Amino acid sequence: MMKPEWIVALLGGGSIVGIVIDRIFTWLVGRRKEKVALADYGTQIAERLLGRMDAQLAGAETKLQLAETQMAAANLTIAQLREELAITGGEVAHLRAELRAREVVIAERDRLQVENTQLKAKIVSLGGSP
Predict the structure, then answer these.
(1) Over the stretch 60-81, which tens digit does the pLDDT of each residue have?
(2) What is the DSSP letter of 127?
(3) Using CA atoms, how far apart are residues 26 and 18, in angstroms rounded to an integer?
(4) Which stretches within the chain are classed as H helix?
(5) CB burial string 76-113: b at 16+ within 10 A, e below
(6) What 3-state class would DSSP assign to 41?
(7) Which of 52, 53, 70, 128 might form a disulfide with 123, Cβ 3.0–4.6 angstroms?
């Protein structure tokens, strides 16, 4: 083991060993600083990327809210259209029933007209006037 006096003499005494040790120490400290600087730079890049991703996420959330609002409006419109369709379907069924009833009335009218014509012909054949 080296004595402290020797270490001081080697480092500060201007010896070749001291210079070499100083260079190695400076190189090691410089490398450490470079690594720290690179880590800081990497951290800055990650923070910027995180900021962009936060902005994208906020934009996506806004788009999602807009889509949900549009979907709710579409669902409301669909429900209203279904209600109108049900009402229209009921009206169509009512009109069809009314049309069938009119067809029955027209058929009855035609039958009565034929019967009336036959009765008039019978009255004329019996010598009466129609």
Answers:
(1) 999 999 999 999 999 999 999 9
(2) T
(3) 12
(4) 4-12, 16-125
(5) eeeeeeeeeeeeeeeeeeeeeeeeeeeeeeeeeeeeee
(6) helix
(7) 128
